[in-house]
Design brief:
By secondary structure, the chain is mostly beta strands. 2% of the residues lie in helices and 45% in strands. A hairpin with a 4-residue loop joins strand 7 and strand 8. The model has no long low-confidence stretch (mean pLDDT 88).
């Protein structure tokens, strides 16, 4: 049995964490074993106003079991656990201290052809941070009671020992998330109401009111397969495949999109931006069989061994299907179906999707035609001033393939000194990996890919160890 405890202070919140854990392993017989554990988190998290921003006490159970079906050959394993995410606030999203009076985003606007409101050579105008129009200021807020993100994870895995050095494993892995962090615009007007008019907004004295909530959810299911050849006769190989289906209501940091209507997260279910449906990864390392102490050249002289012997190669080969991409709609533009201009009333925040009426991806490889990766006929401009029916991340980007390769050799200069020569190549085959296409429907470049990832990059390094 193991017991642990940790105490943490976090400066960005008036926050202190107390963490304790216990774990025990129970061997029922030679074929059955169980692991039982729990983690306890006591969090005192409050904002500058004394409001709770994190729930206080959390208990996270852990359960695991292993059944040896064939001794030393076939094992079935299963596990379940609950995990919490205690937030460390960085950046500016829903960061409460970044509000008046600590921070005021002053807007100095040039009127028509008049003089500039301020020059860099001028002093800061008196009263610029006290005499301001609040209708031009955006607030950062949070719902009063914040919850820590909760993830339930479980898996079932069947592992087979192929040989003394090799094993194969196939598994089902899943998780469910709730109380996940998400952002929405609280000061947004209804569809069909002009949000540029301050009096139409729910809070007329302010412009935007960005609000952080802990109410989003997620789902993940995956079939996973793995082959591993442990280091033997100079060779190590790890190959893995994942087939995943992942949905969420709000993307993680830097991959989220604003809900179409305030905090209606239930209408925002869509594919996870960072999870491809298919992913294959292979990593390997091999000691080339040339040089002293190896299969070929064991009798080489020192000069020949110095140049040709003792080399190692390694690499990572990765292929994945395209990542989900979000198709949005400009509030005003040209309808591709009619060629006529359209204009939605601006609602002072909130996203906008078109209607989806067909298959988004054309199936055309960007190597053949990068101007037709997405199909404009798959979407249409919906009735003005209504939400579109397209889900978040309703299309996929281009697939990616990459190989990184390394060749290295270590020279022993003395008992304590060594010199490593290393040549590395990233994107070894110089594969063109296209970036995602433009995905704003109604723009003239919708579905067009205009850029690609890095070409082959090589580097030579010397490392001296002592």
């Amino acid at each position: 049995m193991t017991v642990s405890r940790r105490h943490t202070n976090r400066l960005l919140l008036a926050d202190q964490d107390e963490v304790a854990g216990v774990n025990d392993r129970w061997q029922l017989n030679e074929n059955w074993s169980f692991n039982v554990g729990a983690r306890y988190d006591a969090t005192d998290g409050t904002d500058s106003g004394g409001n709770n921003v994190l729930d206080d006490d959390k208990i996270s159970p852990r359960l695991g079991a292993a059944w040896q079906l064939l001794p030393q050959k076939l094992v079935l394993r299963a596990g379940y656990g609950i995990f919490y995410n205690s937030e460390d606030i960085f950046g500016s999203e829903a960061n409460l201290p970044l509000n008046p009076p600590q921070l005021i985003q002053a807007n100095l606007i040039r009127v028509a052809g008049g003089p500039p409101p301020i020059r860099l050579s001028d002093p800061i105008p008196a009263g610029v941070l006290s005499n301001f129009d609040s209708r031009l200021v955006t607030l950062r807020t949070r719902e009063r009671e914040q919850r820590s993100g909760l993830i339930q994870q479980w898996n079932v895995a069947l592992q087979y020992q192929v040989s003394r050095a090799s094993l194969f494993e196939i598994s089902y892995a899943a998780n469910r998330g709730r109380s996940l962090f998400a952002l929405y615009e609280r000061n947004q007007t209804d569809f069909g109401v002009d949000g540029t008019v301050p009096s139409n907004r729910p809070f007329p004295l302010w412009q935007g009111i960005q609000t952080g909530a802990s109410r989003a959810r997620s789902r993940y299911n995956a079939l996973q397969a793995k082959f591993e050849h442990n280091y033997s006769n100079g060779l190590y190989v790890l190959a893995a495949y994942t087939w995943a289906a992942a949905l969420d209501q709000a993307g993680a940091w830097d991959s989220s999109s604003s809900p179409q209507y305030r905090d209606n997260f239930e209408a925002e279910w869509g594919r996870m931006s960072q999870t491809p449906p298919h992913l294959i990864t292979t990593a390997f390392s091999y000691d080339l069989p040339f040089g002293r102490g190896r299969r070929f050249g064991s009798g080489w002289r020192r000069g020949a061994d110095l140049v040709l012997g003792g080399w190692k190669v390694s690499g990572i080969v990765r292929w994945r299907s395209g990542l989900p991409i979000n198709v949005s709609l400009n509030a005003n533009g040209i309808d591709p179906a009619t060629g006529q201009a359209y204009r939605f009333l601006l609602r002072n925040g909130g996203g906008l999707h078109p209607d989806r009426v067909g298959e988004a991806n054309t199936g055309i490889s960007p190597k053949d035609n990068r101007f037709a990766f997405l199909s404009p006929s798959a979407y249409r401009v919906q009735t003005l001033n209504t939400p579109g029916n397209a889900a978040r991340n309703s299309a996929y980007g281009p697939r990616q393939f990459n190989t990184d390769f390394a060749l290295r050799k270590e020279l022993r200069l003395s008992e304590r000194q060594s010199l490593e020569v290393r040549w590395e190549s990233f994107n070894f085959f110089n594969t063109v990996n296209f970036n995602n296409p433009a995905s704003t429907f109604g723009n003239i470049n919708f579905g067009v890919i205009t850029s690609a990832g890095d070409p082959r990059v090589m580097q030579l390094a010397l490392r001296y160890g002592f």
